[in-house]
Amino acid sequence: MSPDGEPVWCGLDIGTTHIKCVLVGSDGSLLGIAKTDTPVGTDGVGPCHDPEEIRRSAEAVMCRAQSAARVPTVVQAIGVTSVGEEGVPLGRNGEVLYPAIAWYERRPSSSARQWLTQHPGEEIFAVTGLHPDLGLTVFKLLWLKSERPGVWKACDRWLGIADYVMWKWTGRAGMSYGHASRTALFDLAAGGWRAEWVPEVLPRGLDALPPLLPGGGIVGLLRKDAVPGLVTAADTPVVATGLDHIVGAYAAQVTEPGSVLDSMGTAEALIAPVTVEQFRSASYERGVDFGVAMAPDRLVAIAALQSGAGVSSIRRLFAGRDAAALAELDQRTAAVSVGANGLCYVPPRVRSGQGGAFFGHRFDHGAEHMTRAVMEGWSLAAADALADLDAAASDVVCIGGGSDVTFWMQMKASILGRPIRRIRTPEIVAVGAALLARRATQADDVPERGVAQVDLTPPVDAWVAAYAELQPAFLERAASVHGLHAGHVYP
Where in the numbering of this chain does the Carbohydrate kinase FGGY N-terminal domain appear (predicted)? Predict the structure, then answer.
């Protein structure tokens, strides 16, 4: 007998900082929402995630979201999204051999250096759409090969962090094309694993990798009592949705060329839908990555920045984690004039690993000036990266925690010289996962058009001309630190 309650679709987002869950009703309304801190540990070398801790935290937050719902609910399907790059090596009996090395952890190794001599950056980009970066999956596997050879040799199967959770719930393995395209083992043009490369980084070759699914593909059915306390329908599909940024773009309806998503999380990603032909003609020197959106023939260009982490760190440096102190710092920062009283900040560049720099620091610059300069620096860097996407005139849509800071949004709009759309729906990435779960299980049209709550942030008239004057000086200083790459500094 089926339980009584409002039918809902569950979206789970395993993020860098938090694990979030939403329950979306038949009419697209949010009936339940909850989040918890993402548990982080270490292997003695750097940050890692215990996949079982991730699973338990995910299950707890799903139950909390259901408890928080204003009416009794019954989950019809579960969509799962997560960060990319990181995953779990499993032994022959399905045992976890090693924790998931955090996606943002970059570990050099002799195996990586050797592999890069065999496959230089231009070749990697031509095949995968990615620039060599030690954060990518392939380099985490090569680190295991060099530094944990016993683990590497015993690896019978490798699953992404979202895939691991879904496998534990269903007993079946599956990975989204979007997540696969962040491994540097996926051939974008061919639409599948790069068969010649996989045996170089996994001892069992292709047999160790999961089958691939489009965004919204069903991995399997939730096993009975797999998530204790969660009220579900009799047969509850578990759905692979894709990379977190891409799932957010889906929910924000940034799915066609001509619009750009600015996903302002811990990492900032500028995402522009593109054609396969645009990828094939792209220049390696531009520094823009490419990946899969919902299906192999639907691609995106991605310009990555570290603005969320950069702004958060400077705010915590001056105000700690106290909400009142942070609010007071934000108020003072917003009152500082454009240009931060002559203080210019050039952010780090992810591609080169080169650090950032302050220019023009004086004794009378306080915390509010340094915070303003950091926010301006990241915003100017994002504008340069946006131009590098060949999308300077496109519609820009912002999601993520950073978009909640109104004066930061005003700063971005003023630098671009046009309004920016801001999605106000909470946990929009998890909402996207829920919508994809519904799309996978319902023949009728998903009511996603009414889900995203949008407002418009216009430029501040007095700031537009000031930033237009400031931008060339910023780019000149940024080029002096990082150099120019196909006419741009960032990404």
Answer: 9-249
